[in-house]
Specification:
8-stranded antiparallel sheet, 8 strands, mainly beta, 2 helices, about 280 residues
């Protein structure tokens, strides 16, 4: 067959599992500014959506072991910010403001067997047991319908619902000691909450659901599509971050400064079908 070039970006796939990658992306933002006598007011509102549907041949070769792995995601997010800042030349320049953010994600993840999945899995089972067991034999042992283990179109589907919201208030001021020296200090308080729920809405490959006796524990590798319990988690985090800066104006185009600052990024939640524990133990 010749040597395979790993950088050729060529991959095999089954004709029964065509590649698909479709998405819609859109959004808007609006900014309003108003000048008062000694202050400036700024309002910014924004919204964005991103919807995607993908389908891949999950086994990446010409046999149809796994059907199309279909994944879909709908993401919506919005934000609003308000700032009030000093204007003009001042001994003390300052800005205060607040920011709010909201995000929701609804996603699905399908992983289903293809036409050749049963025959391939049956051969592997016979090889692993020295021919002592096969899928038909296991169906008899566990009282499963004939032809049901690794049947075409069986597998798992998981649905995810995620939401996040946060707010922050902040302020910063710069005190001009003279024309050359200035001191800047600022603080920001951030608070975020995230909620996630995963639901296993389909798990119809029967062998993946049966408890195995110790004598057949070696076949657990073939339980690739187990049902998982509904899984929910909530996460909250807050933080106070700040900055402090001393600056020296050497000339109209050159300055030197020393700065210390901290930042904040809250933790995340993985939207994974493995988030829930195995419902069969």
């Amino acid at each position: 067959m010749g040597e395979v070039d790993p950088f050729a970006r060529v991959a095999a796939h089954s004709s029964a599992a065509p590649f698909d990658n479709a998405f819609e992306d859109g959004g808007f933002s609006v900014e309003l500014n108003h000048e008062f006598d000694t202050t400036d007011l700024t309002l910014i509102a924004a919204s964005r959506c991103f919807d995607t549907t993908t389908g891949i041949d999950a086994d990446f070769q010409r046999m149809d072991l796994l059907g199309v792995r279909a994944q879909a995601q709908e993401l919506d997010e919005s934000s609003f910010e308000i700032r009030l800042a000093s204007s003009g030349a001042n001994v003390l320049d300052w800005v205060v403001g607040a920011f709010v953010f909201d995000q929701t994600i609804a996603a699905t993840d399908d992983l289903l067997l293809g036409v050749h999945g049963r025959a391939y899995g049956d051969l592997l089972t016979q090889a692993a047991t020295g021919g002592a067991l096969s899928f038909p034999a296991l169906e008899v042992i566990f009282g499963l319908p004939a032809g049901s283990i690794f049947a075409n179109g069986t597998g798992t589907r998981n649905e995810f619902d995620y939401s996040a919201n946060g707010f922050a208030v902040f302020g910063q001021g710069t005190y001009h000691i003279n024309d050359q020296w200035s001191i800047t200090g600022g603080l920001r308080y951030s608070d975020e909450e995230k909620d996630f729920t995963a639901t296993n809405s389909l798990a119809n490959e029967p062998f993946s659901q049966v408890p195995l006796p110790p004598s057949l524990a070696g076949l657990s590798a073939f339980q690739a599509f187990p049902a998982t319990d509904p899984y929910s988690i909530s996460f909250a985090d807050d933080n106070i971050s700040g900055t402090f800066n001393v600056a020296y104006n050497i000339s109209g185009s050159t300055s030197a400064y020393v700065r210390y600052a901290t930042g904040f990024k809250s933790g995340g939640i993985n939207l994974s079908r493995n988030a829930g524990r195995n419902g069969t133990g």
